[in-house]
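Our consortium's second objective concerns turning raw sequence data into structural hypotheses that experimental partners can test. To show how far this objective has progressed, the report includes one record in full. It was chosen at random from the queue rather than selected for favorable results. The single chain below, 249 residues long, was entered without modification.
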Amino acid sequence: MHDLQNVRKGISIIIPALNEEKLIERTLSQFTKEVRSKYDLEIIVSDGGSTDSTLLIAGKYADRIVDYRENFPQNISQGRNAGAMDSQRDVLIFFNADTIIRDPELFFNEICKDISDDNISAVACKIEVFPEERKLSDTIFHGFYNNYTAMLNKFFMGMGRGECHIIPRKNFLKVNGYDESLAAGEDFDLYKRLRKFGKIKFRRDLVIYESPRRYRRFGYPRVIWDWGKNSVSVFLFKKSISKEWEAIR
């Protein structure tokens, strides 16, 4: 990763992707020329070996593409770290390839304020399902989970869902990035480690929309079980139970 001497003020948007042709254009197109210029954004797509048109689409929007072409699968921790290695700004924001910012102007304005506070180690956001696809079950689950995330950050340990991680570069370097041995629970693990260096600020007013595709495929009981067992295992034993996180496309 570029060290602190070789970066400038601004924001690196890092998006890991694998066969995301259905959704990645919507995600990338939200970073308009005006927003990029105002906040000095660079867009990095870290591709994990896509065989569809993901790379072609990403090429229209990304400043750089990190293209993984090994013979073994890349997990999302490796993809995020690879993107961070190529980044050149002092703030790192990791988005999943199926995410949309509800209000980009509010988001970037507030993030710039938060990150300037040395007491804040990282920022977490409220996550909701795309409004046009939202069901009652989505509202109930995400309402609970957002409150759970806020509570963990206020009283216990760091927590931030992987759909959006906002981290000053210097703090990302302090914890050596994502743990690449974890196939799942890497988001929980990273923020737990970041919490040692300062407060994790949870922003209820900054909303990130995500696709409900995993919830539709598996249902909430299985998703909760998968998340829960991996989080507990990571917390207690520093390893995930899942050996691979199934991609839903």
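The partners drew two points from this record. The chain has one domain: 4-237. Residues 132 and 211 are 10 Å apart (CA to CA). Both points have been shared with the crystallography group to help prioritize constructs.
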